């Protein structure tokens, strides 16, 4: 058997350079590198990679165009299914989705689908390529979309292109949801998010910021004005450790920490009026992408030592391998098989007490269950950031009892995204809990199809 060529690695800035600023880490393919990587694709007729994409991008077709140096055509193929390719190309966990299904993964390295998607989107933007996606006819009906994150973006885009008048309501002062408050500049530059959102406005979507649905206005109010309501309000409520000392000063949730830095530009204080404690010895608790983002942010804010504290081993970490490797390159230290049991200090956190763990039999997640050993260690810190997960935002279900939720606070929907309240639909993290950007987008696509079907067959 002929061994497939090795994947072309996506170029990155050197670690010693990038930890000094918040500029993007990955540089992206050149045209030559993109063509060379695309040439590795064997163009499987059954397209297994497409089944791994929640929004169904025709991956072999766009890669074929890249290989032929038809970059504009490649971009147009992606845009048929994905309204924000410059974003998904950067932050989607392709290794667990489309690239996992790539035939080459069985005999070597899969095609770098995400890097090629990013290349096509960046090339189109740099060359001023735009696609006229305005509808040929108007449906005469209007849709309210609550939340401007990934799920809301897809619903708004799909329905606007079908001819509906769409208004997106965003609680923050800028649109983008988790894309702007949760993901740092060095992984997803905000100018990329805003440029992708501009495409929404270009096809007629109205975006209103600073509107908290459930407080400023209610779902009942929206139903009087709109023919359907989609709820994509995400999962922004942080989980807590519930251990002694958690109320001490200088202990942040990752949500607050990253919002202060990403959205309110605390790293540019005092030019931006958002103070933040920077710390010299920082402990970040958690093993997901949010924990990696918080740890690498703390490093860039000037910390001398940053520890990621995780109760299992590196193998079980839910963060993307790429982001773990980036953190390791930058000097983040990892403490595995330890569980926080107490924050120590007087008014501010001064140390973190950890209990050593061992791995047992698999739990309900399929990962080995961490088991306490009774042995403890203590590390000195002056900042702690908890990144152990999020719960769905409870405001809308609380104010709208007709919308049923499960025991985890997630809105209950049928397989086509209908809630228990007529004309109200939901998707994304408010339905599935914590998911990925592309999973949320997949739910947005399902909801858009259902809304269109219900409104045209009623």
The total of beta strands comes to: 15
Low-confidence stretches: none
Strand % is 15-25%
Backbone CA Rg = 23 Å
- Order of strands across the main sheet: 3-2-1-4-15
Q: What structural class do the secondary elements suggest?
A: alpha/beta
Average predicted confidence as pLDDT: 93
What general outline do the C-alpha atoms trace?
globular
Helix content: 25-40%
The main pleated sheet reads as: 5 strands, parallel
How many helices? The count is 18
The separation of the N and C termini measures: 57 Å
What key attributes describe this structure?
458 residues; five-stranded parallel β-sheet; alpha/beta; 18% strand
Q: How would you characterize the overall build of this protein?
A:
The structure is a single chain. By secondary structure, the chain is α/β, with parallel strands linked by helices. 34% of the residues lie in helices and 18% in strands. It has helices at 15-18, 31-38, 48-51, 59-67, 71-79, 85-91, 98-101, 113-126, 150-161, 178-181, 190-202, 219-225, 254-263, 289-300, 321-330, 395-399, 429-432, 437-457; strands at residues 142-146, 165-170, 206-209, 228-231, 237-238, 251-253, 281-285, 305-309, 333-335, 338-345, 349-362, 368-380, 383-386, 390-391, 424-426. The strands form four sheets. Strands 3-2-1-4-15 form a five-stranded parallel beta sheet, sandwiched between helices. It is globular.
């Amino acid at each position: 058997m002929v061994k497939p060529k090795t994947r072309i690695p996506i170029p990155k800035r050197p670690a010693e350079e990038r930890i000094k600023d918040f500029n993007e880490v990955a540089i992206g393919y050149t045209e030559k590198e993109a063509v060379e990587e695309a040439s590795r694709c064997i163009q499987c007729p059954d397209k297994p990679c497409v089944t791994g994409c929640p929004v169904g991008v025709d991956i072999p077709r766009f890669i074929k165009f890249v290989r032929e140096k038809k970059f504009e055509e490649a971009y147009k193929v992606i845009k048929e299914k994905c309204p924000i390719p410059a974003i998904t190309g950067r932050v989607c966990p392709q290794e667990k989705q489309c690239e996992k299904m790539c035939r080459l993964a069985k005999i070597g390295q899969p095609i770098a689908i995400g890097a090629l998607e990013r290349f096509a989107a960046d090339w189109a933007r740099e060359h001023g390529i735009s696609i006229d996606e305005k509808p040929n006819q108007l449906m005469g009906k209007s849709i309210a979309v609550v939340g401007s994150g990934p799920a809301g973006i897809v619903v708004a885009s799909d329905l606007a292109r079908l001819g509906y008048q769409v208004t997106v309501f965003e609680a923050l002062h800028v649109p983008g949801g988790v894309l702007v408050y949760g993901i740092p500049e060095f992984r997803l530059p905000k100018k990329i998010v805003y440029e992708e959102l501009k495409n929404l406005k270009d096809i007629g979507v109205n975006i209103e910021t600073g509107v908290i649905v459930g407080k400023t206005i209610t779902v009942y109010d929206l139903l009087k004005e709109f023919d359907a309501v989609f709820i994509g309000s995400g999962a922004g409520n942080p989980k807590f450790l519930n251990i002694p000392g958690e109320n001490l000063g200088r202990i942040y949730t990752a949500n607050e920490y990253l919002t202060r830095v990403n959205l309110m530009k605390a790293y540019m204080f005092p030019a931006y009026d958002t103070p933040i404690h920077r710390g010299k010895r920082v402990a970040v608790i958690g093993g997901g992408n949010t924990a990696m983002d918080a740890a690498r942010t703390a490093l860039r804010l000037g910390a001398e030592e940053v520890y990621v504290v995780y109760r299992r081993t590196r193998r079980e970490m839910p963060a993307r391998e790429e982001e773990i490797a980036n953190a390791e390159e930058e000097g983040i230290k990892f403490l595995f098989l330890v569980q926080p049991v107490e924050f120590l200090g007087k008014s501010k956190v001064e140390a973190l007490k950890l209990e050593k763990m061992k791995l047992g039999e698999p739990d309900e997640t399929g990962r080995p269950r961490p088991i306490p050993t009774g042995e403890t260690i203590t590390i000195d810190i002056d900042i702690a950031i908890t990144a152990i997960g999020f719960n769905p935002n409870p405001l809308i279900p609380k104010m709208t009892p007709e919308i049923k939720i499960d025991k985890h606070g997630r809105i209950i929907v049928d397989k086509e995204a209908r809630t228990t309240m007529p004309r109200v639909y939901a998707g994304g993290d408010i339905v599935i809990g914590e998911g990925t950007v592309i999973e949320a987008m997949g739910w947005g696509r399902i909801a858009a199809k259902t809304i269109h079907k219900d409104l045209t067959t009623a």
